[in-house]
Design goal:
4-stranded parallel β-sheet
């Protein structure tokens, strides 16, 4: 069987250079799902927002036949794809992320931005999948094979190895800007922060902080204390811009 394909946009990052930005074909021994066909090219299904099979929008389970023409599109924020044809969620109503073990600083930054972000630096792949299903989270990973797991409904393959760029990628992919709530969540354990009277934490403060700062917040779970400026002082300007700019 001969299937003709065309890959668009950033999805070309996943395929061999000789096939990028031009039509190519794949030979397969028997009919298969369009999802398996495309992932066989190296593209995880979580990166795909629209598939056209012989010019008609189809879902991942659709079977391909000899001679079919398959066009594959990434998530395009600027293109208005009808909601019932989209394969991905371009924006999350209640963003909840699960971050892979190699993305610890990204997890911290997402928490600082106010997003519910689960992270363990020793979680195995089976444990990640179990938590993903149990808590209905969005997977963020640099592991291509993990992202192709059938259990992963929504996810993103983080491209950069620079945490500040990783955060920009996630903000752009899921359009998170309007949902930011900076410094409302503990960067250490992910729980909410609550305002606390200075007298309740005074014994834990350094002399200058005790003298010049009056407003404090405390994590409802681990007890970590935060105050104005304590987050920003240790953040790169690019992260500050993402968290605070309108």
């Amino acid at each position: 069987m001969l299937i003709h394909l065309r890959i668009y946009g950033r999805l070309n990052d996943f395929i061999p250079k000789k096939h990028r930005y031009q039509p190519f074909h794949r030979e397969i021994p028997e009919t298969t799902s369009v999802k398996d066909l495309i992932e066989g090219c190296g593209i995880p299904h979580t990166e795909i927002d629209l598939i056209l099979l012989n010019s008609d929008p189809v879902g991942f389970d659709t079977r391909v036949e000899d001679g079919d023409q398959v066009s594959v599109y990434p998530v395009f924020m600027e293109i208005d794809i009808p909601a019932d044809k989209r394969l991905q969620r371009s924006q999350l109503k209640d963003p909840k992320f699960l971050v892979d073990v190699n993305l610890g600083r990204l997890a911290r930054y997402l928490r600082l931005a106010g997003f519910n972000t689960a992270y363990r630096n020793d979680a195995s792949d089976p444990e990640l999948i179990e938590q993903l299903l149990k808590e209905d989270r969005v997977l963020l990973t640099r592991d291509l094979r993990l992202l192709m797991h059938n259990a992963v409904q929504t996810g993103y393959l983080v491209r950069s190895d620079q945490p500040q760029i990783q955060l920009q990628e996630v903000f752009d992919r899921f359009n998170l800007y309007s949902q930011r709530a900076p410094f409302t969540r503990c960067s250490h354990c992910n729980h909410h922060l609550s305002k606390v009277d200075k007298t309740e934490v005074e014994e834990r403060l350094l002399p200058k902080t005790k003298k010049y700062v009056d407003d404090f917040a405390q994590c409802s779970r681990c007890g970590k204390v935060y105050w104005s400026g304590s987050h920003l002082q240790r953040l790169e300007p690019a992260i500050q811009k993402l968290l605070l700019d309108d």
